[in-house]
Design a protein that fits this description.
Elements: H1 3-10, E1 14-18, H2 25-33, E2 37-42, H3 46-49, H4 51-58, E3 62-65, E4 77-79, H5 89-96, E5 100-102, H6 104-111, E6 116-120, H7 125-138, E7 143-147, E8 165-169, H8 172-175, E9 184-187, H9 201-209, E10 220-224, H10 228-233, E11 240-245, E12 253-257, E13 260-265, E14 268-274, H11 283-296, H12 302-311, E15 320-325, E16 328-332, H13 339-346, E17 353-357, H14 369-376, E18 377-382, H15 387-395, E19 405-407, H16 411-421, E20 427-430, H17 443-455
Parallel strand pairs: 1-2, 1-4, 2-3, 4-5, 6-8, 6-9, 7-8, 9-10, 10-11, 11-12, 16-20, 17-18, 17-20, 18-19
Antiparallel strand pairs: 12-13, 13-14, 15-16
Length: 458
């Protein structure tokens, strides 16, 4: 089905778009431009939406806002927002009455005119997706980057050509009800995450599996051979399986031999680059490159990969260097919304760091974080709803040896304390190990607030 055919199929129907956020705003505007009856629904009230509420109404949208935004859900087609469970009672009842439940990403998979490469996993999704897209662009391809990375692509479909490539980051929420898979699927790793939304870890894994379970034998699936869960999932793939590994050699894929990044397929191998070419700190970023190279192998030259790795400084909010002040380096790792992500960040530095952590609890264990903090942190500053559980994980760890831990009320207090307790050569990093929703709209806002506080330090 083409994009135009899909829009034509909506004519004369009533459409509900749930969530007036980044991913759905272009969709709402597009539907209104085509004269389709749209009810935009959001739990935020009119005050929280600000001027956007009036703008949407002036274009013809009907708004349903506030606590009862999911009531009277009788539209013919319902677009759910990422992060909303598809089995909510109101949605389930609407489907039973005949409504079609879908999402911006599901429709994009139906109408995208070009091949898709997509990345999912618990950690490393955005960096790996960014590397893949950047490498393909440098190889001369026209690339459309989107998905969970913050750029909805459905409304941009008319500008896409069959010879283009769409590169997507996909979350478990976007994948939960997906019935299509991309030509190239990449799974970086899996560990317990988002258990405040998913019923359990099994459901989370099942959602992630949708990135490859609908592939054909002509498609490619890339898995982390060093992660027990993803290595097991590789056995379910229908198409060509490529593995990446830091710890062992693989028959088809990309691996480390010493410090050499080696690509192997069809019994032949070559050295793509050395790990010293990678500017990004941390072994997890070596893994991100291994995954990306496995995905683009054959489409991008090794020379382009080496040149890119030597200059790519990373993605905002991912161990992002904010500034060096009096010899102290300050980093923003706001993307670290889980313990595993913070663990990877801490292991990126050879020295012990000053860690600022804490945020909203999403129902996962922090036990694994405690020992790593004790090994890699010289001063722990906690701020947010998870301060208590992180403190307990650290203090109850078997290697706890009296690490100093402070509770503060906000990032201003955290930065001031860190400033007073550091000396030249030290590292200060915001790596919350928790989601941002206790105080911020998302991890981007959290990171930018922290960067502003750090940049104002004297």
């Amino acid at each position: 089905m083409t994009f135009e055919e899909y829009l034509t199929s909506l004519e004369g129907k009533r459409v509900a778009v749930i969530g007036i956020g980044i991913s759905n705003q272009p969709l709402i505007e597009l539907l209104l431009q085509r004269g389709i009856a749209v009810t935009a629904r959001d739990k935020k009230d009119r005050t929280a939406l600000g001027a956007l509420a009036g703008e949407l109404e002036s274009r013809g949208a009907v708004l349903r806002l506030g606590a009862d935004y999911l009531e009277d859900l009788t539209e013919d087609v319902i677009f759910r927002t990422p992060g909303m469970r598809p089995d909510l009672p109101q949605l389930r009842q609407a489907v039973e009455r005949g409504s079609v439940l879908t999402s911006e990403m599901e429709v994009f998979f139906q109408v995208c005119p070009c091949p898709m490469l997509a990345v999912t996993g618990s950690d490393g999704k955005t960096t790996t997706t960014t590397i893949i897209a950047s490498l393909l662009k440098k190889a001369g391809r026209t690339v459309h980057l989107g998905g969970n990375i913050g750029n909805p692509l459905l409304a941009q479909t008319p500008q896409m050509q069959p010879e283009d490539l769409a590169v997507l980051e996909l979350s478990s929420f976007q994948l939960m009800t997906m019935t299509s898979s991309p030509h190239v699927a990449v799974m970086t790793n899996l560990s317990p995450n988002h258990l405040d939304v998913h019923k359990d870890y099994a459901e989370y894994i099942a959602a992630k599996e949708n990135i490859f379970t609908h592939q054909s034998v002509q498609d490619i699936a890339v898995f982390n051979a060093d992660n027990e869960v993803t290595a097991a999932l590789a056995e379910k793939a229908l198409g060509r399986v490529r593995l990446f590994s830091r710890q062992r050699e693989v028959a088809d894929g990309v691996f480390l031999r010493g410090t050499s990044v080696v690509a192997r397929s069809d019994g032949k191998e070559r050295v793509v680059m050395d790990t010293s070419d990678i500017q990004l700190p941390g072994v997890h970023n070596i893994e991100n490159y291994l995954a990306a190279i496995a995905a683009v192998d054959g489409m991008v030259s090794d020379e382009i990969i080496r040149d890119f790795a030597r200059t790519f400084g990373g993605v905002e909010h991912r161990i992002e260097l904010i500034r060096t002040l009096d010899g102290v380096r300050w980093y923003n790792d706001s993307i670290a919304s889980s313990p595993s992500r913070t663990i990877a960040g801490l292991r990126s530095f050879p020295e012990k760091v000053v860690l600022i952590a804490g945020g909203k609890d999403k129902g996962i264990s922090y036990d694994s974080l405690g020992p790593v903090v004790n090994d890699h942190v010289k001063l722990l500053i906690l701020c947010g709803a998870t301060a208590g559980v992180i403190r307990r994980a650290v203090e109850q760890a078997p290697n706890y040896a009296g690490l100093e831990i402070f509770d503060v009320s906000d990032y201003e207090e955290a930065a001031a304390l860190a400033r007073s307790r550091t000396q030249p050569g030290d590292v200060v990093i915001l790596s919350p190990a928790s989601t941002s929703f206790d105080r911020f709209a998302n991890f981007m806002e959290r990171g930018r607030v922290f960067k502003d506080v750090v940049n104002r330090l004297q």
